[in-house]
């Protein structure tokens, strides 16, 4: 892991590398994803099946998992795991219920009524990745806010687990932990399909897959590219890139905790980023030593080593002011304040997905249990985008009701502006009411 001494040059070069690592368009991936999207739009289930066989090795006879199977997976889940999920669900629900927005109505003195209604989306698709990144916690983080928002139907897609049976034939099944979480979170229907073909199936609708209004959830580059390309025909949440953590530490911070927390996010992906900002050389040195010590006992040491070498660094800064400035430029997904009186600094942070304050709020607390959402903007997009929340699953509709007298008061101004725009039919629609 590199150590950078800030000099108004080295740190900016590093920031540039970091923010470029996930946001660039990959033209060859885009081209192959476009082909998949076109095929699914034209051939429906047949194309979804063909691409499933090609990329996953096999495809289930029927894409949909029955409600019964979901319930069975939930009942069969290990009791401690089930109880932990229930605990997480309670906390996520309580936090997200605070995000419910109400519409409003403005009644003016002249009888005019103006208002806004907030409605949950009708049907939402949740993409849940397969492979080693199959996280039941991500199912809760996506489905619970959707439920609270009043989404009528939640459809989940996830790639099948493909295994060889005794006779050497390939079989498909769903990850049982994912199914258990889906059952608990109130997902309505689950389909076994992944990749760009599943995103396309949810966008266009096929014989088996219902068409949805919005697709949320993380995925690999094929999933992310499909979401980017289809945005407009369907709404999307965001393009969540590899996980990130940025820690701001003063002399009071404990290097054991700093090392552990940096590696908690480094283990997600070889492109994950873990950055420590400190003004103390001793903290920098002791954290590097701790990383080496703790790494030996961690299962995913290979992934961690790669991400610590790739897009990670310890930066020795001139002071807290510089650390706060750099934090806003990095705009990290997760930001830990490992400083004395951390709550004094929360309001000084402008750009971050989720902030964790002090020694006893390690980032994984937010990944699983505190109740805040773990689907967060990455790659610097916290400059303009927010955590997934109840507000991600609603849309707004405005309404207007005028009386004749109220329209008479406003008619001349409407006609004046309409005529300035050269839109005579607009002006006429008001004029005819007073002839
Ligand atoms: N930010 C978060 O909250 C969060 C949570 C979980 C996972 N993730 C991320 O999600 C990603 C999961 O990736 P994954 O690959 O394990 O699962 P995935 O479900 O995203 O992708 C698997 C699918 O990719 C398709 N695919 C594979 N090779 C292909 C090819 N050559 N051409 C076209 N399609 C192809 C297949 O159809 C397969 O079903 C990881 O990057 C992980 O870090 C993020
Ligand atoms: N830290 C991830 C988002 O960057 C979310 C997650 C799920 N499970 C564990 N972690
Ligand atoms: Zn995590």
TrEMBL record:
NAD(+) binds at residues 127, 197, 220. This is Histidinol dehydrogenase. The active site is at residues 333-334. Belongs to the histidinol dehydrogenase family. Keywords: Amino-acid biosynthesis, Histidine biosynthesis, Metal-binding, NAD, Oxidoreductase, Zinc. HAMAP family: HisD. GO terms for cellular component: cytosol. It catalyses: L-histidinol + 2 NAD(+) + H2O = L-histidine + 2 NADH + 3 H(+). Binds 1 zinc ion per subunit. GO terms for molecular function: histidinol dehydrogenase activity; NAD binding; zinc ion binding. GO terms for biological process: L-histidine biosynthetic process. Catalyzes the sequential NAD-dependent oxidations of L-histidinol to L-histidinaldehyde and then to L-histidine. Its cofactor is Zn(2+). It comes from Sinanaerobacter chloroacetimidivorans. Pfam families: Histidinol_dh (PF00815). Zn(2+) binds at residues 265, 268, 367, 426. Substrate binds at residues 243, 265, 268, 334, 367, 421, 426. Its EC number is 1.1.1.23. Pathway: Amino-acid biosynthesis; L-histidine biosynthesis; L-histidine from 5-phospho-alpha-D-ribose 1-diphosphate: step 9/9.
